[in-house]
Amino acid sequence: MAGEDGKSTRLGSSFRRLIGTALALVSNRFALLATELSLEKWRVLEICFWGAVCWSAALIAIILLTVLVIMAAPSASRLEVVAALTSIYGLSAVWAALRIRQRVKNWPPPFADSIDQLKKDRECLLNRKS
Predict the structure, then answer these.
(1) How far apart are CA 43 and CA 93, in angstroms?
(2) Cys bridge to 73: 14, 31, 81, 109, which one at CB 3.0-4.6 A?
(3) Neighbour-count burial for 60-84, b at 16+ CB within 10 Å, e otherwise
(4) What's the CA gap between 57 and 47, in Å, rounded?
(5) 111, 33 Cβ separation under 8 angstroms
(6) 111: Cβ–Cβ under 8 A, 6 or more apart, which residues?
(7) 36 near 115, Cβ under 8 Å?
(8) Strand stretches in the chain, DSSP E
(9) Model's pTM, two decimal places?
């Protein structure tokens, strides 16, 4: 009877260590996920901020340049100048939209590091059982 009591104590101790390790692993993965979420949030905010700065400066420059070019053009050809500038601005907008789409498509997926780490953990645990 004393031998069985010792076995159950060791089994209980091993089980507690196993649970403790599993909880530490889950806690570690949640901390990694929270860090990645924070980094992703700051990346999006930074892109939005610099995008707004860029749009504001570009809009002011385009408006002033347009006024300058139209005023400098002879009266007879002002309509053609306006048409040409409108075409240039339209093509620039299409080009910029295509660049934005390309950049967004090439972004790494959110939580890529967490997913990779969970895959490594799974492989490690499966290989350990074998």
Answers:
(1) 24
(2) 81
(3) eeeeeebeeeeeebeeeeeeebeee
(4) 15
(5) yes
(6) 33, 36, 37, 40
(7) no
(8) none
(9) 0.46
Quickly count helices (H) and strands (E) in the chain. Answer: 3, 0
Hey, what amino acid is at 64?
L
Choose among 67, 101, 94: nearest CA to 81.
Answer: 67
Does residue 21 have a pLDDT over 70?
yes
Interacting residues of 118 by C-beta distance below 8 A, sequence separation 6+ = 29
Q: Token pair of 14, please?
A: 């091993």
User: One-letter amino acid identity for 126?
Assistant: L
**126 against 63, higher pLDDT:** 63
Q: Which of 117, 73, 66 is nearest to 89 (CA)?
A: 66
Interval 39-60: pLDDT, tens: 888 888 999 999 999 999 989 9
HSE, side-chain direction, 13 A CA sphere, residue 74: 2
Tokens 């080009």 locate to 95
Q: Cα(94)–Cα(64) distance, rounded to whole angstroms?
A: 21
